Amino acid sequence: MSTTTEEVDEIRALARSVAAGRIAQYAAEVDEAGRFPSEGYRALVEAQLHAVVIPEAYGGVGADALTGAVVAEEIARVCATTQQVSGANELFAWPLLLAATEEQKQRWLIPIAAGEALGAFALSEPEAGSDVAAMTTRAVATEDGWRLRGTKRWITNGGVANCYVLFAVTDPDAGSRGISAFVVAKDDAGLSFGAPERKMGLKGSPTTEVYLDDVPLPADRLIGRPGEGLSIALGTLDRTRTGVAAQAVGIAQGALDVAVGYVSERRQFGRVLAEFQGLQFMLADMAVAVRAARLLTHAAAVEIEAGSPTMGAAGAAAKLFASDTAMKVTTDAVQLLGGSGYVKDFPVERMMRDAKITQIYEGTNQIQRIVIARDLLSRAAR
């Protein structure tokens, strides 16, 4: 469902209102305690902003990619942790939207859309991060379905989510074409979780290892056909990387907002800091970068909605530029606040810590450059 400019403005206003009124006040506490952002997530559920890409047929709002990016930006602007928790719902939903049966979609997406369940996406492993095809988690066919054994790492919402889209090798001799996708429920026998990771940022977003000790699954837990897992995973990431870009834009915009407010009030040498031209130039550069990152992100969202053959490269470019922008802008914001930026009295130090992960997850920025270059060279060779 494509949206008009007026509809996008309306959803942005709603998301901004929820973020400012019901999420921002808890952001520092969530970070300090490293606790699940229950108040913020509840607010998103009540406003139907927690999983906007799920179609209306399954109880969602059926938002397009641009609307999803706008919502992600506005939430991350005040609390990237809360946005990350809800963003994992979309990572869970997309493999089902791309390859699941109608019965599977009804079973697993409706509870997510209703806010009754939380989703997660389990792809990475201790020795298979960027090199997804090197995964060692195995799914062996049985008379009744499948049996899974292995370990997943860096799983957002690990231990908290009710359901996981998980990838495992079903044919060890087929290389990347031997990976398949499954839905695993939290209460499945043999499933357990590691201790929460002690992270630099996004501290309230639970991240754990997921352990599969001969987890038995019925046949209807397989998504798509055996061997389609990698294409499902990559198809998902082609779409969700735009969400990471939007998250990065939100973090950067939030830091810029704080910096502008601070230098407009703080006085040194008898003058307001905002009157110093050198600082004005820093703010201008920050604003230009944020604007450019937002436009790249929105352009990638439009390509996704159109099903463009270059949407993977577009999402990679948006994620690459926006995440680098978030890191630069938040660092500059800390610098503009001076000593105040280095302590927790102001949110920019948290935003700087949160920004770093956007350069790493859903494919490091080095991987994004490979995606972009391969697309460029393959089209040149045609």
TrEMBL record:
Cofactor(s) named in the record: FAD
SUPFAM superfamilies per the UniProt record, alphabetical: Acyl-CoA dehydrogenase C-terminal domain-like, Acyl-CoA dehydrogenase NM domain-like
Pfam family for this entry, one: Acyl-CoA_dh_1
InterPro entries found in the cross-reference section: Acyl-CoA_DH_CS, Acyl-CoA_Oxase/DH_mid-dom, Acyl-CoA_Oxase/DH_mid-dom_sf, AcylCo_DH-like_C, AcylCo_DH/oxidase_C, AcylCoA_DH/ox_N, AcylCoA_DH/ox_N_sf, AcylCoA_DH/oxidase_NM_dom_sf
Domain Acyl-CoA dehydrogenase/oxidase N-terminal: from-to ranges: 5-116
Keywords associated with the record: FAD, Flavoprotein, Oxidoreductase
Keyword Oxidoreductase: yes
GO terms of molecular function: acyl-CoA dehydrogenase activity; flavin adenine dinucleotide binding
PANTHER family per record: ACYL-COA DEHYDROGENASE, ISOVALERYL-COA DEHYDROGENASE, MITOCHONDRIAL-RELATED
Name of protein: Butyryl-CoA dehydrogenase
Species of the source: Blastococcus colisei
Source lineage: Bacteria, Bacillati, Actinomycetota, Actinomycetes, Geodermatophilales
